[in-house]
Amino acid sequence: MSLEYSITYKAENTYENWVHDAYWQFLIIPQLNRSQEFVEVDFRNSINAINEHSINGYGFQTIRIHPKKKFKSISFIARFKLLKKDINPFDFEPEQDHEAAYKTIEALEFRVNHAIFLKTTPFTAVPSKKLNLYTFNKEYSIFENLQHLNRWTSEHLLFKTDVTDVYSTLDEVLQKRQGVCQDFTHLFCALARLNGIPTRYISGYLHQGNGYFGDSQMHAWAEAYIPKIGWVGFDPTNNILANSNHIKVAHGKDFKDCSALKGIVYSIGTNKTRHSVEVQSTDQ
Amino acid sequence: MLARVANNLFWMGRYIERSEHIARYLNVNYFSSLDAPNELSQSRQFVLRSMLFMIGDPENDSSVNLNEGEILYKIGLDPDYSFSILNNVKAARENANSARDLISTELYESINKFYHFVCNYNVETYKKSGLYDFTVNVTEMTAILRGKMRGTLLHDEIYAIIMMGLNIERAMQIIRIINAKYNDALEAQGSYGDTFGNSFEWTTLLKCAESYDMMRRFYKKTPTSISTLEFLILNPNCPRSVMNSLNQVYKHIKVLDPSKKYNKESTAFLVGKVRAEYEYKFIREIEQDIQTFIENILKSLSEISEKMEKEFFNY
Amino acid sequence: MENIENQIFSSYQRNPLLFDEIFDQGGEVKDVYAKLFKLYGEHSINDYVKLNDKAKASFFNQGITFQVYGENETKEKIFPFDLFPRIIDPQEWKVIENGSIQRSKALNSFLWDIYHDKKILKQGIVPIDLINSSVNYLDQMIGVDPPGGIYNHISGTDIIKHNDGQYYVLEDNIRCPSGVSYVICNRTALKRALFGVFNHYQTHTVTNYAENLLELLETVKPKGVDSPNVVVITPGMYNSAFYEHSYLAKTMGVELVEGRDLFVENDFVYMKTIRGPEKVDVIYRRIDDAFIDPLEFRADSALGVPGLFSAYKKGNVTLANAPGTGVADDKAVYTYMPEIIKYYLDEEPILNNVHTYHCSRPDELKYVVENVEKLVIKPVDEAGGYGISIGNRLTRDEIETVRKQVKENPRKYVAQPIMSLSVHPTYIDDSESFEQRHIDLRTFTILGKDREFVLKGGLTRVALKKGNLVVNSSQGGGSKDTWVLKE
To answer: A173, A221, C307, C349: which could form a disulfide with C264 (CB 3.0–4.6 Å)?
Structure first.
């Protein structure tokens, strides 16, 4: 069975003074993959600048805009219609041989193949005193350990907006023990990687219930690689596995590789930015 | 050619030409005033005010007593005065630097030598006894630069852009000089019995434009207001005249815009229009209201410059 | 003795512990320098003073200068240039040339591998941690096939001659190596000052660099382009290497652009000309990775072109050198160069690497601890010369401290023998005479698709301060014309 989603992404920028030159790059188009299929993509901006479809350095679909005339305000609206296969997150063969799996992840070949998602980045660096914050129990399978970590993360931090910002690193997050999905995901990634599991940061949309309205933002969760199983999605903010409510846009080492909007604006003075995201499902 | 670099080359041409005219103006006015026929033309205050007027920074307060050393230093070598010859040469070289890959090694080396000459000129020497030496060297070095442009650059669009800058600037500077000397002639009127029409200032004006000898050859008479203005504005064979400069600008814009299509928005069209206007003017017409003429032609020239910027240098 | 009759060398002091390029151990002039030595001897020291001044004026007037920013004014200075050329005979040059090509090719294969299959890492020949910890490794380059399969189109290899008479490579520069324009300027200046001496030697030209660079850049054009439009991109005229950027653009006959002259539309790159946009196919870039595209790398950079990396990734434009090459000219990667050459080319290294002892290996640690006074000890992860101990300059107590540090944390340290750079007679302004000064050599290698070129010459840098081993121009280094003789 498939679910049909309709996603609306809006951004609005206003500037105190004329902007003579600007570039924006949006990383908001849902990824096409095993479980995601497009029906429609529609993107517009308020000053009729050309929307260029391209890819970013990691190969994800982007939309780039470079207006050819000056402006003081610009707004963008994107509408996606998407078919999402109803997936059961537990639909895989559980790991039989724990020991073999742990051996695999320790092997050089595995570490080289997955080097990029085993690396520590500024956003996923655990303070040196807390390197043993979460250690896997090797009597359990990797999947089970990751599930525990997912729960542990969701309990270790308290979800609260406006405590952290997009620049917050883990030492700050661990000290405050509060944050948003970005912080939960960074912590999960960091601790899974410390235990040798390749883990990537996912940005995307979360469907929060039929007919849900509101100025919700983009969501973040993680995917961890388990030998013989592959990439499995964990949402540590909600202590669930990623499921058919999670619509993936892009992945990367951390938030920095996935930020939804990058802009280079040549202007002086202040500016205001507003974003909103709306996800609706139309059951089929 | 890159639009940004074209803009720099255009301005390189303008700054080089500007330095030359300022230097010559200082030289001719200062030295001809030393034995001028009337008292006012001989007066140092009169000459210094004329210099400030010419570079576009007139001293309007008649009670101010200008200091010769200060004014000459300011216009010549003051690094903090944006109109100074020093800063013009610096700007010319800066523009040349950014287009160094496009201009010939020979032209660049000459610009560079010119720059070092001006930058290293001893300020004390200049103030005491160097005015003649300095200004003559500046005018001669710009002549060398023009020679290097003609002789070591391919006569393509790079050359055309530099020459456009040079000629637009020349037309502007000639008009500024006419304006300044016209103003001087008005003020010096009657102070020694000579009339406005036969003022000594007309000879100085011709010398400021390096056109005295040419003019004598052409008219074989002492310069008068009418013959001087006619020669410097309308004579297409005088290489310093406004008409000649407009013809040059027209010739070079045709290299950049060879299209035969009628396009009234193009720079080439505007240049052709301005040129045609002056081609069929006669001097009595201009002389009736010289102030309006000066204002109009300066306006037309700035319009050409602005239009060029939009059409070719927009980046 | 001949050098006593030779008046300009009458006060030349030869330190027998150093390897002198023109005098052998017995103080005799080597064959290859014999004629030159005689010709220079015909001039008086006064002639040199004059010639030296002329050469300086020539650099100054040509604007081959760099800026020194002071409190009140900016001064222009020339790079110190020495009138006595360095000669490299054909046999020695062959070693240098083949060795430079060998290294460049090995590095290129290494780069391809670490951005594709990573075999050398999987086999543990080069440790994965080295790559993981490198800020110059660009994840965005993983799986990208650069046009023509070339990463390091231009390499600058820094080579010295040790007191054993052998050439050693100190460093491979494969980001934006500079200096090639000075090779050509030095030749021009020497010709202007002392053209006569060229009549007595068959010297290879150095002015063919730009034509070769252009030809080789054209071999790595993007797919589907017939005659590529090549440009050079510079950070701008205030960059210290701007002269070189403009020199290269001019001699290749291509445009010299800044980031603001380019823009990307539908993943193709265009430059803004007086006749509108013009497509660009190959960019010889002289700006660092971090600054090439603010949308992909440093967002605060105004030097680059937004969207450039996307255009590159789509294969619509060639960047030379490719992004991410910096990972291979790392100090740590250098120590694995012999292994890298063997692994990819199945050849023995032609040029020596300075031997590196990894303190993480127990037997090597033992040697290091016992021989601190003969070694240079370096921390693996510090950049810019921090934390380096030079054994023969340490006191006894200091040696003990180093021993202790290394034993406590062996993984953190590597050690190398103390290298001694050869010396060359160099005209010294202050003393108005020729004196021994340390020199090195930077060669310039260009890799194209199935083609390569090494400039027959290179930049000989001179440490002008007496006894100084640092030849860098920022630390008062000068340079010499370098003659490679024909066979």
So the answer is: C307
Q: Does A235 share its domain with A111?
A: yes
Here the CATH number for the domain that contains residue C413 is 3.30.1490.270
A55: helix, coil or strand?
strand
Phi-psi region of A177 (alpha: psi -120 to 50; beta: other; left: phi over 0): left
CB contact (8 A) between residue C310 and residue A112: no
Q: Which amino acid, residue C399?
A: I
Q: Does residue C426 fall inside a structural domain?
A: no
DSSP state of B199: -
The predicted pLDDT at position A274 comes to 87
Q: What is the pLDDT of residues C30-70, one digit of tens each?
A: 999 999 998 888 888 888 888 888 888 888 888 888 776 66
C-beta atoms of B108 and C63 within 8 A: yes
Tell me which amino acid residue A214 is: G
When CB atoms are compared, the residue of C237, C243, C274 closest to B312 is C274
Using CB atoms, which residue from C237, C243, C271 is nearest to B2? C271
Q: Which two tokens stand for residue A235?
A: 């949402």
C24-50 as b/e, with b when 16 or more CB fall inside 10 Å? eeeeebeebbeebbeebbeeeeeebee
Residue C268 lies in a domain: yes
- In the listed set C400, C417, C434, which residue is the last one of a domain according to the structure? C417
Q: pLDDT tens, A58-100? A: 999 999 999 988 999 999 999 999 999 887 878 888 778 889 9
Centre a 10 Å sphere on the Cβ of residue A72 and count the other Cβ atoms it contains.
14
Percent of chain B that is helix, strand, coil (3-state, to 5): 75, 0, 25
How far is residue C356's CA from residue C354's CA, in Å, rounded to a whole number?
6
pTM of the model: 0.91
Tell me the ipTM for this assembly.
Answer: 0.92
Do strands A158-159 and A178-179 pair parallel, antiparallel, or not at all (unpaired)? parallel
Q: What is the C-alpha separation between C83 and C480, in angstroms, rounded?
A: 7
pLDDT tens across C102-154, in order? Answer: 999 999 999 999 999 999 999 999 999 888 888 899 999 999 999 999 999 99
Per the domain annotation, does A115 fall within a domain? yes
Comparing C370 with C74, the larger pLDDT belongs to C370
Contact, A36 vs A81, CB < 8 A? no
How many C-alpha atoms does B196 have within 13 Å on its Cβ side? 10
Which of C185, C274, C279, C283 is the mutation pick for testing B, counting most B CBs within 10 A?
C274
C57 vs A: CB within 8 A: no
Domain containing A167: what range?
98-258
Residues of chain B positioned with their CB less than 8 A from the CB of C181:
none
| 3+ Cβ–Cβ pairs closer than 8 Å linking A and C | yes
- A–C CB contacts, 8 A cutoff, strictly below: 70
What is the chain C residue with the closest CA to A58?
C140
CA distance A102 to A99: 5
Together in a domain, A279 and A205: no
Parent domain of C285? 223-316
Same domain, A229 and A270: no
A20 to chain C: which residues are within 8 Å by CB?
A: none
Stretches where chain B sits below pLDDT 50 are: none
Strands C375-379 and C262-265: unpaired
Please tell me the distance in Å from A280's CA to the nearest CA on chain C. Answer: 31
